[in-house]
Predict the structure.
Amino acid sequence: MLTCTQRKPPNPDAAVTLTLALTAEERTRSRHRFEKDGEAVFLRLPRGTVLHDGDILEDETNSNLVRIAAKPELVLTALAQTPILLLQAAYHLGNRHVPVEITATYLRLLPDSVLRSMLEQLGLEIKEEILPFQPEMGAYGHH
């Protein structure tokens, strides 16, 4: 059993005890119990902690390191013919307060038939994919 209590900066060279693959929603849980290869991993992090792909967690004994990986999950990727169309879609998704991954070339969100229809009506191409989802943290989020 590991109880992780502290987040450390990402370090690709860190010698980790295990890697814990979590969905975007699971990476927002600061207090939770996960199972990995039959081993219990407890998170006891400060409230509001959001974990990111590559983060390192340290256990309470300072002897074990756990790497966080963004777990691939079913997502909708929205592609637009023009930058303004992508911006308009981001605006409409923002009005609905849904988690969105935003880049210069696509928007990505969790599957939702109503939002998919809205984006298609705006003229975006929607692809279902299984990829790590890394939504924006919001204006007041912090790493």
User: Anything to note?
Assistant: The radius of gyration is 17 Å.
